[in-house]
Amino acid sequence: MSKEVVAPGDVVGVAEEYLPGENVEVDADGKLRAQVMGVVIRNDKDHIISVKPIRSSNLLLRVNDIVYGKVVAIPNDRVVIVKIIGVENNGNKTLLKDDVTGIVPPSQLLNGKPGSASEVLGIGDIIRARVISKDPPYTLTLRDAQLGVVYARCPRCGHPLKWRSGELLQCPNCGAVVRRKVSLVEYWA
Ligand SMILES: [Zn+2]
């Protein structure tokens, strides 16, 4: 079952359907609204809807979640440190409020092609990755055609790079060609 994450003030139901439970209030129009950031819990037997607060954004991420993150460091040109900025829930992208750190180990960069991380990623790139560990710092993988860089800027002039073909991005401004492990389904430029 997928988690429905709501923010304070979000409508979680109507008073005809559910009774307000924990962290839910009824507004003047009979709408049930969340009072906290959290996960919606529907008790369909007793018709009670409540919101379980999220105290830490750690609770938001689970194994196999698809996340978006910014590459912040590549120590020793091997491990990639990522600031996770968003998560996909049923195709919707939710931004994370707190900084959550992800790590892409060398073995999760490319299928059977070990090498230096900077050959396939750059600092500042935005990547789409899958969570493969239960606890933070989250281990991420890019080993799938849909995973990889979704946005990158030209290392020479800073202009956003466009996808050219395969694993190649090109700068429309200065013509530089850059190799990346590109997400083949979701490049943004
Ligand atoms: Zn350029």
TrEMBL record:
Source superkingdom: Archaea
Alphabetical list of InterPro entries matching this protein: Csl4, Exosome_cplx_N_dom, Exosome_Csl4_arc, NA-bd_OB-fold, S1_domain
GO MF term list: nucleic acid binding; zinc ion binding
GO biological-process terms attached to the record: RNA catabolic process; RNA processing
Localization per Swiss-Prot or TrEMBL: Cytoplasm
Pfam families: ECR1_N
Keyword 4Fe-4S on entry: no
Keyword Zinc listed: yes
Transmembrane spans: none
Positions of Zn(2+) binding: 154, 157, 171, 174
Start and end residues of each S1 motif domain: 64-145
Assembly with partners or alone: Component of the archaeal exosome complex. Forms a trimer of Rrp4 and/or Csl4 subunits. The trimer associates with an hexameric ring-like arrangement composed of 3 Rrp41-Rrp42 heterodimers. Interacts with DnaG.
Membership in a protein family: Belongs to the CSL4 family.
NCBIfam families, A to Z: PRK09521.1
Protein name: Exosome complex component Csl4
Organism, as annotated: Vulcanisaeta distributa (strain DSM 14429 / JCM 11212 / NBRC 100878 / IC-017)
